[in-house]
Amino acid sequence: MSRHLLSHIQKELDQIRAAGLYKTERIIDSPQGVEIRLSDGRTVLNFCANNYLGLASHPRVIQAAHEALDRWGYGMASVRFICGTQSVHKALEKAIADFLHTEDSILYAAAFDANGGVFEPFFGPEDAIISDALNHASLIDGIRLTKAQRFVYKHADMEDLERCLQEAAKARFRVIVTDGVFSMDGDYAPLPDIVRLARQYDALVIVDDSHATGFVGPTGRGTPEKFGLLGAPEIILTGTLGKALGGAMGGFVAGPAPLIEYLRQRSRPYLFSNSLSPVIAGTALSIFSWLSETTELRDRLEENTRYFRQGLSQIGFTIKGEDHPIVPIMLYDAVLANRFADALLDEGIYVIGFSYPVVPKGEARIRVQLCAAHTRDHLDKALTAFERVGRRLGVLTQVV
Questions:
Q1: Is residue 87 annotated as part of the catalytic site, yes or no?
Q2: 288-298, pLDDT tens digit by residue?
Q3: Which of 9, 158, 193, 351 is the 20 to 30 Å CA partner of 95?
Q4: In the chain, which ranges are E strands?
């Protein structure tokens, strides 16, 4: 490799460190859960996993994975249209569609692949894709793969969205693209208003519901259910099996049957990537069955979220979002956010500081993510640690 290139890369890395933006990967030496052991032997409480329902290492899930491994094997060593489709894949796709009240669904190796594969087959230069300014990177990258006209509307700003729809009036197809829940802020897309505009301007709506499927809405069916839009024909859903639904891998697109059928013929990440491991497919199938039986886990998560958000507000922290288990604690300064996270780790609380480019400059934060498996003792320990560190670092300066 060119010495000049390596020298340039090293300077960039040094600048990242100097700016306090370097991302250090902490090493976990135990299964994922609310209590984890680090490689240095410390046991800490995990408050930053996407493990919303606590299923990543749940005994029932582990047992389902063993059974799937024994029955279906480890990997397919093939793409779906050659010899990579088992009946377990088809059963899972039906279960996802049934759970989300859509006609069909299609599996991908990851949600990033689902978002990377859902746009390019359908939209070309004569079409318009209209995207929320804070959409996930995978949606942005998927849109970039097309030659469609691109519009970006201000975050959750319906007047600006309508302006974009009007500017795209001559497009053959118009599609509005949004996260269901925005992962850095924990706020919801105004889905009823988006669907209203979509109906008015004859547009599709693609919603990445990765931070909602399984636990948002009265029965966990995501942001469409939360807003009374479950099964709305305008909405195409993308999502993941890698967060609330066991935390492994796998993504999906769910929507009208002809759209899903066409993706099987033309979606490049689907056609050219190995099939999802049957271990994951079989385990996820068991999880969807479980979630259709009871709302116990999502109800517990909802209560944990309410308690923790109220506690942080009473202490005096500035937090973003609404009633979602993503709880951003705003610190604004990148160096401070990393210092805060390190100090919390010394208190036995595992969280991470988020700063640019993951969030805008000047918007650094600690992002807490709550879990159904957190107990009241866990939550109280975390709240006490946040208050102690906040006062020590001068974030909290008044007695509340």
A1: no
A2: 999 999 999 99
A3: 193
A4: 35-37, 43-46, 104-108, 128-132, 149-153, 174-179, 181-182, 187-188, 204-208, 235-240, 251-255, 326-332, 349-350, 353-354, 364-369
